[in-house]
Design brief:
Distance between the termini: 33 Å
CATH superfamily of the largest domain: DNA ligase/mRNA capping enzyme
Number of strands: 19
Number of helices: 8
Largest sheet: 6 strands, mixed
CATH architecture of the largest domain: 2-Layer Sandwich
Radius of gyration: 23 Å
Length: 386
């Protein structure tokens, strides 16, 4: 779980030109605006990351009511601010004896993550009160066969195969620039849409099961964009051929992508229909080993399967925009500046940002969300809500 609220150190302070009452503070890799004389360099604070939803019933956060209690990227005194830092003394529930840098306070302070709305989906209509169904469910063997398809509790996200998509921001792991400075990374465009996960699991020698998921839910088959993409792009064929080609030592495969188009994030790419771009492929072996394919490997695998087995739908990967070593970026700010720019999918649309993954080990990755895009997006949201 992401640490939305935690105790962190104010590493340094920096004056903001012409600002009388506020000053710029640095926490981890984040730059935020705080009140003057509220902190000194080296002080610990309670830090709330962007996309934190603060509890309305806690009077400490009453000043955030005008922002609907959501911490987001804003511009204050001409300075971009990402996050919220408050003195620890404002929170009596934190005992002096437990104050230490890095302490996770997300659950204790009841902080939730702001989630963009997912496309609604239609649940299959099954009349559980049906006399026929009641009769059939009297038998244990029939309950085993039928209940998994009508019970929501059985449809959990397949986290044993692949984790929910929630890439860590570079500001939360600034040390990676030094640790991986000589490593080759690929930067791909971060598309603004909704996440989709498709998995296949080898349950026995000749039997496999497939899951279709939104970012957090395993979805039953119905009329929704996730199942539509599954059908339109022949995902089942790709998954079955992948697991067949990799051999019997493979237990499961998970692929994740971004769905974009009408009614998703205001369709910023001006598409007439929904589209799918893959950004992750994970292979799980029976001996417990795992492997992530980089974007070039995914592209080659999808294309070879499509041609060899005659699949009509071409499965795409997210656009690769850069490849190089991290040493070229002197700090987090340089990465964030590089994340600014326009989308490959629409020339006049600011891109959401970039996702960096290590060429030889794509499990090592982070995202850099464009601050220009966030400011533009927040203005659009404010206009929409007026």
């Amino acid at each position: 779980m992401r640490n939305l609220a935690s105790i962190q150190k104010i590493s340094r302070l920096e004056e903001i030109p012409e600002a009388k009452n506020v000053i710029k503070a640095f926490v981890l890799g984040w730059e935020i605006v705080v009140k003057k004389n509220e902190f000194k360099p080296g002080d610990l604070c309670v830090f709330f990351e962007t996309d934190s939803l603060l509890p309305k019933d806690n009077t400490v956060f009453s000043f955030m009511e005008s922002r609907k209690f959501r911490v987001k990227t804003v511009k204050l005194a001409g300075q971009i601010s990402q996050g919220l830092a408050l003195p620890i003394s404002m929170f009596p529930e934190i005992a002096d004896s437990e104050i230490k840098e890095g302490l996770d306070l997300t659950e204790r302070l009841k902080i939730e993550k702001y989630e963009k709305e997912e496309e609604t989906f239609v649940e299959p209509k099954i009349n559980i009160n049906s006399h026929i169904l009641k009769f059939v469910l009297k038998y244990k063997v029939m309950r085993k066969l039928i209940l998994p398809f009508i019970s929501k509790s059985k449809r959990t996200f397949p986290s044993r195969i692949i984790s929910e998509s929630d890439e860590t921001r570079i500001q939360c792991m600034p040390g990676i620039l030094e640790k991986e400075k000589d490593s080759i990374f690929i930067a791909t465009e971060k598309l603004e849409g909704c996440s989709a996960t498709f998995t296949i699991n080898r349950t026995c020698l000749f039997w496999t099961s497939v899951s279709v998921c939104s970012r957090k839910r395993n979805l039953p088959r119905s009329q929704n964009i996730w199942w539509n993409m599954y059908d339109d792009y022949c995902i089942q064929s790709y998954l079955k051929w992948i697991i067949a080609l990799l051999g019997m030592n493979v237990k499961s495969v998970g692929i994740q992508g971004e769905i974009i188009g009408p009614k998703i994030c205001k369709n910023i790419y001006s598409l007439k229909g929904h589209d799918l771009y893959i950004y992750r492929l994970k292979i799980n072996y029976r001996n417990g080993n795992v492997k992530f394919l980089n974007h070039y490997e995914m592209q080659d695998l999808f294309e070879s399967i499509r041609k060899e087995f005659g699949i009509y739908a071409k499965l795409k990967v997210v656009p690769v925009l850069w490849e190089g070593i991290l040493k070229g970026f002197k700090d987090v700010n340089a990465i964030l500046e590089f994340a600014n720019g326009f989308s490959k999918l629409k020339q006049d649309q600011l891109r959401e940002g970039l996702v960096f993954s290590k060429l030889r080990d794509p499990s090592v990755s982070f995202k850099a969300v464009s601050r220009e895009y966030l400011i533009w997006k927040n203005k659009k949201e404010d206009e929409f809500n007026i």
